[in-house]
């Protein structure tokens, strides 16, 4: 069947009242979470996964809910960037450069509206890209055997640090730790107990949902206490919106360029949303700057917002088609799929066509919902920013714990969650990235299975891992992904730092 | 100062050795040895962890500043409060436990005692009824059950 009719079937799933309801709830919750400084999409999805899971939602409903939260959080991130000059997460950083100066000049409402429109264009175009690219990639990936898959998993870890990765050895270390946690439990193929020390609770391994909430949400609370305890955030008042058609037309080209660049950055392994918004902003600046950028140019708001939302949808391409997430949030979404007993990868498009296309269609619906929510109702989200975090953070933590408790009604899970929170705090202090740990826990079983499968088929001959053109290609990209950042990383970081400094000088 | 990475690297090196050694001790699975057994992958992991730990010890990054010790004590108290909540949720019940932990956290983040208590009690009651009655996920009543 061709893509168009599959997509139409997807819309039949996405336009049921139930699906629309979940898309709307997800969009609202996501925007709220994204708007809060310190909470980004990965945290948002992590906090809501246990809830979706314990509510026993159907796979389609849970995925629609969580992808809307994801998109909503990417939208919401711009609100705190513009009004507080505090990016909710890393990709939202570039929006501060022109968004905050615009707000200072009394154009906060315009900056918010323009960024909402740019976000919409970014997500919308990238979702079209997803519709076109995902089936092609899925078909291609059907040719993968176990040794290609093993190489693909290695590639996923190698590129996870991203082009801007600081210390590649720390990424490797984090991946190894995650994979080691995954190896706890009973070995599926032989029944041998591994690293359980005879503890019954460990026979089934460590639940990654608990690890995700602990590492992300609880460690964030600890960081928040350390940094902001007590201090109020000064917020810029929002003026009345005066946006003419001319203003919108002025930012359209920047938004389209940003959307396409962001999508490409999202699809590429290791690039991700941070690079998406960075590249979109710098190229737009080179393209149309006449000295206004950094002082509140609307195009400087539109380009990175389109870029980071485009990258967010682009990152779903490798996640859905290959089962290899390229970012923290897509890793968390992958965790959701795995816990619903759905294995992402090329087969997903054949075995669960309804689900995949339903979710893709729901992304289109979610985008319209978000645009409608964000233009007239932005005031409500802005109000939320005036609630001091000293009340909000404890409540968010409570909701996260309730979600964890509801999954299996066991207090032991809560102890584990707190334990992972402390670990997450320590890891972040030493600059050990958290995403490879989660990814290792997620991909560990599959990665080991493909290794053993490949080696059993070849009777223990290790060269099987490198004996097809495809696997050699994958290993090459993996090696490049590991080595390139050591050369390019310092350059890009220096540029990002300079962009920030020059903005402060003005 | 470059102490953090060195200390952490050494801890991880110990973990890598212990993990790898434990893997070699797995019992031989039923049906005898295979070319790739349950120990193959863990041994690979211990090697990767070992190499990256040694790199961290040899070429450590500059330290991120740790919080002053007063703040570390503060953070430990907060962690203990969350553990106490985990312990109390069943015997004491969700509402009192949650009200206490949320109030405590708000207070430690700088809210006044009265406002912290209002936040704690309101949020725990709202979340309890939301979960039990709307979402139908049973949270323990604990002491309030009679």
Notes on the structure:
The complex is a heterodimer of chains A (506) and B (146). Chain A has one domain (3-231, 242-503). The longest helix of chain A is centred in the C-terminal third of the chain and has 37 residues, at 469-505. Chain A is globular, with a radius of gyration of 22 Å. Helices cover 74% and strands 1% of the residues of chain A. Chain A has 21 helices and 2 strands. Chain B is an all-alpha fold. Chain B has 2 domains: 2-58; 69-144, no CATH class. Chain B has 5 helices and no strands. In chain B, helix 1 runs antiparallel to helix 2. In chain B, 34% of the residues are buried. Classes of the chains: A mainly alpha (506), B mainly alpha (146). Chain B: This is Tripartite tricarboxylate transporter TctB family protein. Chain B: InterPro entries: DUF1468. Chain B: Keywords: Membrane, Transmembrane, Transmembrane helix. Chain B: Residues 7-140 form the DUF1468 domain. Chain B: It comes from Marinomonas profundi.
Highlighted features:
heterodimer; A: 506 residues; mainly alpha; two-stranded antiparallel sheet; 2 strands; 74% helix; 1% strand; globular; B: 146 residues; 2 domains; 5 helices; membrane (chain B); DUF1468 (chain B); Tripartite tricarboxylate transporter TctB family protein (chain B); transmembrane helix (chain B)
């Amino acid at each position: 069947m061709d893509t168009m009719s599959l997509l139409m079937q997807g819309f039949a799933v996405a336009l049921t009242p139930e699906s629309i309801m979940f898309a709307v709830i997800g969009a609202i919750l996501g925007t709220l979470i994204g708007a809060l400084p310190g909470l980004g999409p990965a945290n948002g999805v992590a906090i809501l996964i246990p809830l979706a899971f314990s509510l026993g939602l159907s796979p389609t409903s849970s995925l629609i809910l969580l992808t809307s939260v994801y998109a909503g959080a990417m939208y919401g991130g711009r609100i705190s960037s513009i009004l507080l000059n505090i990016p909710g997460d890393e990709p939202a950083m570039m929006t501060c450069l022109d968004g905050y100066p615009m707000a200072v000049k009394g154009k906060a409402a315009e900056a918010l509206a323009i960024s909402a429109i740019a976000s919409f264009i970014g997500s919308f175009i990238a979702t079209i890209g997803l519709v076109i690219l995902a089936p092609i990639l899925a078909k291609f990936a059907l040719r993968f055997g176990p040794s290609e898959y093993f190489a693909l998993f290695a590639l996923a870890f190698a590129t996870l640090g991203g082009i801007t990765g600081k210390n590649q050895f720390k990424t490797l270390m984090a991946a190894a730790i995650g994979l080691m946690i995954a190896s706890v439990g009973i070995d599926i193929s032989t029944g041998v107990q591994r690293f359980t020390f005879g503890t019954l609770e460990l026979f089934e391994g460590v639940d990654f949902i608990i690890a995700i909430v602990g590492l992300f949400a609880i460690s964030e609370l600890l960081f928040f206490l350390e940094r902001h305890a007590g201090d109020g955030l000064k917020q810029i008042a929002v003026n009345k919106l005066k946006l003419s058609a001319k203003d919108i037309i002025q930012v359209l080209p920047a938004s389209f360029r940003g959307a396409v660049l962001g999508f490409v950055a999202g699809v590429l392994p290791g690039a991700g949303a941070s690079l998406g918004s960075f590249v979109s902003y710098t190229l737009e600046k080179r393209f149309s700057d006449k000295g206004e950028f950094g002082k509140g140019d609307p195009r400087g708001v539109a380009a990175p917002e389109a870029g980071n939302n485009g990258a967010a949808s682009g990152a779903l391409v490798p996640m859905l088609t290959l089962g290899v997430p390229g970012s923290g949030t897509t890793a968390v979404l992958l965790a959701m799929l795995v816990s619903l007993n759905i294995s992402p990868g090329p087969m997903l498009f054949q075995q669960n066509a309804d689900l995949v296309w339903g979710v893709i269609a729901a992304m289109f619906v979610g985008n319209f919902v978000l645009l409608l929510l964000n233009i007239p109702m932005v005031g409500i989200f802005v109000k939320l920013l005036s609630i001091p975090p000293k009340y909000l953070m404890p409540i968010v933590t409570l909701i996260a714990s309730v979600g964890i408790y509801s999954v299996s009604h066991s207090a032991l899970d809560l102890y584990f969650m707190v334990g992972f929170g402390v670990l997450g705090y320590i890891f972040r202090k030493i600059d050990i990235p958290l995403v490879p740990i989660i990814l290792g826990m997620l991909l560990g079983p599959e990665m080991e299975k493909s290794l053993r499968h490949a080696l059993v088929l070849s009777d223990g001959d290790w060269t099987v891992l490198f004996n097809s053109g495809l696997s050699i290609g994958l290993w090459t990209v993996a090696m490049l992904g590991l080595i390139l950042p050591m050369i390019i990383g310092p350059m890009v970081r220096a540029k990002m730092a300079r962009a920030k400094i020059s903005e402060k000088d003005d | 100062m470059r102490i953090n990475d060195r200390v952490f690297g050494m801890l991880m090196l110990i973990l890598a050795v212990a993990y790898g050694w434990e893997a070699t001790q797995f019992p031989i699975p039923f049906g005898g040895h295979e070319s790739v057994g349950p120990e193959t992958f863990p041994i690979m992991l211990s090697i990767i962890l070992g190499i990256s730990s040694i790199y961290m010890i040899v070429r450590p990054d500059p330290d991120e500043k740790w919080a002053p010790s007063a703040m570390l004590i503060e953070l430990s108290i907060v962690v203990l409060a969350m553990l106490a909540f985990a312990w109390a949720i069943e015997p004491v019940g969700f509402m009192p436990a949650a009200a206490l932990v949320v109030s405590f956290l708000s207070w430690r983040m700088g809210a006044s005692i009265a406002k912290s208590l209002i936040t704690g009690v309101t949020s725990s009651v709202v979340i309890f009824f939301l979960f039990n009655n709307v979402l139908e996920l049973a949270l323990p009543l604990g002491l309030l059950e009679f």
